[in-house]
Fold each of these.
Amino acid sequence: MHTRILLKVFGCFHKIERGDNHEKCGYCFFIHGTWRSYSNVTSNKLRRSYMKIRDYREEDQASWLRCRVLSFMDSSYFDDVQRDREKYDNPVIQIVAVDHNGVVGFLDCEYEEKQGDVCYFKGDRGGVIWHMGLLPDYRGQGLATAMWHAAKKRLKENHVHRVEVWTQDDLEATRWYLKQGFVFKEAYLNAYLKGSLGDPTLKKFLNLQDCGDIFGIRSLNFEAPIERKEELADICYRLHEVRVYEAEL
């Protein structure tokens, strides 16, 4: 059942600051006891006693970085570890889901001030989701959708009309983006090779004579056209489709 009420509400950070009625707010949630969303999010599975969707703050950095690592561990991005929060060249909307232990989910969407500054495809002013994830224990409770609705509201307020996202071939992530109205546009391959110096496959990809004195290749990571998938599947120890999706706001 989709329940559209708030129970035991103690305050809503950005509405209360402006003196507005929290019952009009579909952006952030600060609830003790029970969490319910105005965004048609099924939330009766949520078990945490404290949950809030809000803007990222500088003091969230350590918790955000930990959350990102743990959120990606069961995905094809398990080795994409960041030790620092990157700085963006353009405006960015940074949303987090937090409970009393810190950040449990995150969404970063950089958007254009001028067409062509951020997006891969040409068109109206757009944005790109560079980071999005949720800790495993918090999935299936509507938090990802709540973060996306919060970000989408802000994007519309800034006259952004479309959003792109680059992701790999993780089934659950793909299903979620399609459910939110994202449309597949194109793909390429993210390929990984390794082997000894005598490996004929490596010799095909590398001029080993120019490498100097080495013992082997631990990992050769390269990008390739999607048309080479069948060829590379036979020789790569890891091979992912990198897919770009786009949604109109």
Amino acid sequence: MPPGQGWNQQPGQAQPQPAPGPGTGPQPQQGGQWQPSYGGFGAFGEQKPKRSKKPFLIGAAVVVLLGGGGVGAWLLGAFQGDTLDQAAVQDGVVKILREDFGEGDVKNAQCPDDQPVRTGTTFECTVTVAGQPKKVTVRVLNDQAQYEVGMPR
């Protein structure tokens, strides 16, 4: 039998080609056409490995904790800046009404808490003058916590 011929093959006939295996690349076919073979990267629909959600969950927990801490600090007044000392302002109001306004019987000054030390801030305090409840206006003059007290009304 001449070389290149198999059983039951006539001389001049093409010898059958072996089936292409995985990753062998394109194979020539009869007529000189190239056709892709199967088995290359992604040929079998390989799935990407699933990523863990753990880093995302840890990051979200950190953001929530930091946000909660910031809101808590804001509610407690950490970002409010300097505020007037309520007891000192109440004592100052009584002293000014006695010394500057000549009111002899002044008691029980009540001023709001946490008033900012900012030029132009105004608020009202209540005082008892000669047994009668009165209101006085307090205005902050500068950022050194100096203030003026208005006449009782």
